[in-house]
DNA sequence: CGCGTGACGGTTGAC
DNA sequence: TTGTCAACCGTCACG
């Protein structure tokens, strides 16, 4: 795979911040030791990690690019910078740039998908309850009819409606219909309850790499005060009410299997030209170097004429 | 030359 | 506690 191996115990976003500030180093060589920086940042002291791609950029195999880079990619694209130039400038493979921009175009989110874990179960207690109710009302009802009713009644949507076979299994195992005489255990009963929101968030933009189950307590968006979340640039929601589905703002990785609500405009609080906030995050200098090519670019992104507003961190 | 895409090796987290 | 599985990741090479 990559040009060099790495060893590290964890990939906290802090080290990305360090990477982001490192000057370019030649490719095809093992990365610099991180020990001193890690001590400074309080991260673990494992040394040397990361790989270098053909462009000289740093990446960790299997791990998403840091949000700062992802954000930067979208920002540059919005400014009309061609993907190939973004790729070269940020030293990210063009495939990755293409992927991130395509995802952004499709979902409005710059954030990576949910890594690991299992797909949320669709046969939640509520769904089972409704299936049971349908069956009681009409013992001769077919599974596909139940499926249609779940959709029609809004119990499920097209993304989380159980399959006909799942419904049949539920009828067989949990309701014990006479036509389904093979009771079996239902391994997923009372397991993770799917929180059904119209647009479940993917991650907090400053997701950490491990966190407790996120779906238990959706919370409303609090004002984002001073935060030390991993040192990534943060963006206030000032002048902008919390999006209705921004129900997870805890700094944790949230599993979601549909589109995200964490659009760039949710993360970046674009606002009309006004005095810039005092604190500027990383990469601000780079913005000055971008040609003012305010055309709709290849990805159909309208370059923003508003300045991204960053939170103090 | 720019870009989309799939294979690949890797990581992650629920089960 | 450990292993499995299926999701995701970014890079690379190809067309």
Automatic annotation (TrEMBL):
Signal peptide: none annotated. One of its GO terms (cellular component) is nucleus. It is found in: Nucleus. Pfam families: PAX. Keywords: Developmental protein, DNA-binding, Nucleus, Paired box, Transcription, Transcription regulation. It comes from the Eukaryota. Residues 48-174 form the Paired domain. One of its GO terms (molecular function) is RNA polymerase II cis-regulatory region sequence-specific DNA binding. The keyword Transcription applies. PANTHER family: PAIRED BOX POX-MESO PROTEIN, PAIRED BOX PROTEIN PAX-6-RELATED-RELATED. This is Paired domain-containing protein. It comes from Pinctada imbricata (Atlantic pearl-oyster).
């Amino acid at each position: 795979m990559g040009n060099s191996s790495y060893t590290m115990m964890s990939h906290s976003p802090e080290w990305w911040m360090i990477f982001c500030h490192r000057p370019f180093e030649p490719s095809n060589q093992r990365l610099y030791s991180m020990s001193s920086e890690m001590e400074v940042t309080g991260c673990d002291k494992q040394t040397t990690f990361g790989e270098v791609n053909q462009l000289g950029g740093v990446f960790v195999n299997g791990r998403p690019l840091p949000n700062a880079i992802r954000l930067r990619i979208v920002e540059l694209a919005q400014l009309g910078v061609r993907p190939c130039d973004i790729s070269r400038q940020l030293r990210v493979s063009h495939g990755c740039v293409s992927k991130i921009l395509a995802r952004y175009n499709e979902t409005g989110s710059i954030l990576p998908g949910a890594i690991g874990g299992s797909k949320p179960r669709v046969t939640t207690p509520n769904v089972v309850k409704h299936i049971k109710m349908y069956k009681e009302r009409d013992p001769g009802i077919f599974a596909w009819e139940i499926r249609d009713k779940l959709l029609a009644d809004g119990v499920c949507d097209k993304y989380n409606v159980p399959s006909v076979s799942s419904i049949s299994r539920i009828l067989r195992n949990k309701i014990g219909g006479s036509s389904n005489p093979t009771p079996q255990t239902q391994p997923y009963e009372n397991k993770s309850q799917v929180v059904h929101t119209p647009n479940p968030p993917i991650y907090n933009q400053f997701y950490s790499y491990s966190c407790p189950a996120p779906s238990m307590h959706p919370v409303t968006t609090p004002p984002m005060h001073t935060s030390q979340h991993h040192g990534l640039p943060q963006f206030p929601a000032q002048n902008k009410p919390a999006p209705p589905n921004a129900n997870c703002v805890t700094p944790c990785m949230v599993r979601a299997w549909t589109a995200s609500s964490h659009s760039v405009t949710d993360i970046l609080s674009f606002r009309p030209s006004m005095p810039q906030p005092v604190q500027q995050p990383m990469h601000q200098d780079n913005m000055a170097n971008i040609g003012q090519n305010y055309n709709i670019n290849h990805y159909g992104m309208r370059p923003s004429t508003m300045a991204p507003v960053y939170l103090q961190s």
